[in-house]
Write a structure and sequence with these properties.
Elements: H1 21-57, H2 61-108, H3 113-119, H4 127-167, E1 169-174, E2 177-182, H5 184-204, H6 207-230, H7 232-238, H8 241-293, H9 299-316, H10 318-321, H11 323-344, E3 351-355, E4 361-369, E5 375-379, E6 382-384, E7 389-393, H12 400-407, E8 414-420, E9 425-428, E10 438-439, H13 440-445, H14 455-464, E11 477-478, H15 480-483, H16 486-500, E12 504-508, H17 516-529, E13 534-538, E14 550-555, E15 558-563
Parallel strand pairs: 3-8, 7-13, 7-14, 9-12, 12-13
Antiparallel strand pairs: 1-2, 4-5, 4-6, 4-8, 10-11, 14-15
Helix pairs in contact: 1-2, 1-4, 1-9, 2-4, 4-9, 4-11, 5-8, 5-9, 6-8, 6-11, 14-16
The structure holds adenosine-5'-triphosphate.
Adenosine-5'-triphosphate binds next to helix 12.
Protein name: ABC transporter ATP-binding protein
Transmembrane segments: 24-45, 65-88, 145-164, 184-203
Membrane topology: Multi-pass membrane protein
Amino acid sequence: MPPHSLSDWKVILPYWLSEEKWRAFAMLGGIIGLSFLYVRTAVWFGKWNQSFFDAMFAFRAQDCLSLLPSYLLMAALSSAIYVFQVYLTQVLSMRWRLWNTRIYLRQYLSNETYYRLEHGQEQADNPDQRIADDLSQMTIWTLKLGLDAIQAVTTLISFSIVLWDIGGTLSFSWHGHAIHIPGYLFLGTVLATLFTSLVLERFGGPLVGANYRQQHYDADLRAGLMDVRRNSEQIAFYGGEEAENLRFSRYLAHIATNWRSVVTYTWRANFITNFFHETASCLLWVMLIPKLLAHTLTVGLYSRTNAAFMQARNSLQWFIDNYTDLATLRSILQRLNEFERVVAHPFEKGITRHTLSSGDVQIENLILKRPDGSVLTTLPNLTLHAGERWMISGPSGIGKSTLLRALAGLWGYGSGTLSFDTKHAMFVPQRPYVPDGTSLRQVLSYPTTPDHYDTQAYESVLKSVNLACYISRLDDVADWSQIFSPGEEQRLAIARVLLFRPRVVFLDEATSALDEENETLLYSVLTTHLPQATLVSVAHHANLRRFHQHEILLSPKGALIQPISETEAASGSTTASC
Ligand SMILES: Nc1ncnc2c1ncn2[C@@H]1O[C@H](COP(=O)(O)OP(=O)(O)OP(=O)(O)O)[C@@H](O)[C@H]1O
């Protein structure tokens, strides 16, 4: 957890400086205006109380009855003000949340941030929770607590004047000195509240850190459950229930251990808050003794003083009452701040990429390193000419996938330059991405939109990779990742390549889930449909060598560049089924 600092609060600012700021300030102004009006009605209620109780205890029944309509009117007015204020607050909160979420999503889904957050050196746990929950909580709590604070200040000012007026000056002599304390009722209330606030911060302070950790552990539990949902089949095949139970026991143990700290600090804070609440009335009674002795305290005056004291005390103890909520908000702000810090952290850019306008791929002075700086492998200066087919091989863990990540701009550890037509290149990973809850057209056209290609094109590519049986389901919306087998997913990924028709295709064990026959089919389709494309494959299977003309054999000592003999390079077509 980052150290708590004032800078945590800066995540609140951007919306109030954005293009929406004038509308936001207008709404905030409206809410604050309504809050002033609401306090004003409370002052009227106070005055009404004094008139009513003085009339009541003077047995002036007619006066009491005549005061009732004005009470009803004030009640209706104050309710209307309150309802409208809540409505405006909800609208502002939602607008703020939407604005913030859009910004966060844009940051998250650009420059491969979503990838870096999972695989980079600097990581922020559970970004989903930060974007979906923390942002919403931040706007709700900031507005609630901020507006309550403003209302508390307004109330305090209004009723401090009343308390100051009614309280008058306390005069007494001490060691022969005449002491006069003007507005003593007000001063007594302020001092008692300040003292309690200091005690509270001293004993309840660690609640912020404990809340921060609690959110982190809760999010881990949720992410773990999502993991099980996503990998249910794998877990079931392994019979991994026990292992999963053990994992969740650990999450629960974290939650339970931290929860004890939360409870300890919460009860401390609550005890202090409650003690202050309960003893505040005694404080008023003690402070009113001089008035009682001077016979200047009427029932009506007591009622008004009590109401004003309660209002002033309530507003002064805003910090005390909202301490635990403030602690929650502070921990949410810390989580958002940490997210922003990690997102803004510069991406390692030792390896640079340039765009070419031809189908060539140029590799210059390339050294691939691990994040800790140790060298994985090196490559000589090399040009893969347009239309050539290259195979990357080497022992497991040598850096084959890392080379493709560097080509895709996802790996910056190392040095050197990679150049190719980045706009017309396509990367095919081992596990293709199959978005759920979409039509098959959308799955196939990903990452473009379905209207990018006509129906004929979809049908044709499905036939080519032998998924013709899905043609009738092009417009079905389904969780396709649950429907396709891993081999079908890989065939679908090749169908995507055929649709997109890239100039350069990078395949990272893209046919590993298929049997030899089907693997051969996909490579045959690729080479016959895209004869001009430059093909770079990471592949283990020897039967794929014949589809390539050159090999880059990676080893710890460097890369060996060698041709693949003519006799190996032959293609054949075969069949596959859905
Ligand atoms: N995010 C990362 N942080 C630290 N090390 C990493 C990271 N990603 C990969 N590595 C390391 O880099 C090395 C190369 O990994 P890579 O996936 O490129 O190997 P590979 O040659 O493709 O292996 P395989 O043939 O088994 O797929 C491995 O030792 C791996 O542990």
